[in-house]
Amino acid sequence: MPYTLHRGDALTKLSELPDNSVDALIADPPYNSGGRTSSERTGRTARVKYTAAGAEHNLANFSGENRDQRSYGYWLTLLLTESYRATVESGTALVFTDWRQLPTTTDALQAAGWTWRGIASWHKPVSRPQPGRLKQSCEYIVWGTKGRVDPHRNPVYLPGLYTASQPRKGRVHITQKPIEVMQELVKICPQGGTVLDPFAGSGSTGVAALREGRQFIGIELDDHYADIAEQRLDQALAQDDYDLAGPEA
Fold first, then answer.
1. Average pLDDT, stretch 131-136?
2. How far apart are CA 54 and CA 186, in angstroms?
3. Are 109 and 93 in contact (CB under 8 A)?
4. CA neighbor of 27 nearest in space, from 66, 81, 83
């Protein structure tokens, strides 16, 4: 099978992966962001934090959204350290974050051993305007490498800005990323290589990886979303119009 989906805690499952077994990490961890006070940051569910009051959907909550700033930085460092061990030399890490957690994310990436290479932006045209303020219409992708950049290993030219709104039709996760953005990002992994996502969610990274001829290892804590991810990954394998990594189902 060109994909493997593990169910369970990301740190626990990452520790079970062999050294130097993946080519690229693409992670969208729970941001543990939002709120002016500690109680607002840690006492609200993901749905309350990231879903507008008038939202038409009723998507399920997800776990891991109640860490304070210090514990989030420590936890993310541990996770990126395990991911570093599992990644090949010159492999790449791409980690999503928002503006509040951007400094903590760049610190954790470097503390884990990665060489920080820069920040890309995901621009969301459909985002909430706020009176008297600049519109917060971007999330960010902190990226780095395990050691040096080897341009011969994967000679691709990728943009530093991606523009796409969150999915509306068929949306299945509160923080679901656009598949067109993820299909661009997985190209940081060499053709036929393996993409690791420790927070698989509804499986968007995995679907993008399969569509772009990469293999995929995902980890998801919540069974509800793991079921959705597995269904979407199987559907991606069943499509004939993509060059998939490995035999079709």
1. 88
2. 33
3. yes
4. 83
> pLDDT tens across 22-76, in order?
999 999 999 887 655 666 666 655 444 545 544 455 665 556 677 888 899 999 9
User: Hey, how many other C-beta atoms are within 10 angstroms of the C-beta on 88?
Assistant: 18
Give the residue with greater pLDDT, 216 vs 31.
216
Report the alpha-carbon distance of residue 217 to residue 82 in Å, rounded: 14
CB of 227 closer than 8 Å to CB of 202:
no
The values of phi and psi at residue 92, to 5°, are: -125, 150
Strand order in the sheet with 138-145: 3-7, 215-220, 194-197, 22-27, 87-97, 138-145, 115-123, 161-163
Nearest to 191 by CA among 218, 209, 217, 205: 209
| Nearest of 140, 139, 93 to residue 113 by alpha carbon | 93
**pLDDT level of residue 210 (50, 70, 90 thresholds):** very high
Closest CA to 141 of 116, 165, 166: 116
Confidence (pLDDT) at 59: 62
d(CA 29, CA 147) in angstroms, rounded, equals 23
Start-to-end C-alpha separation, the chain: 8
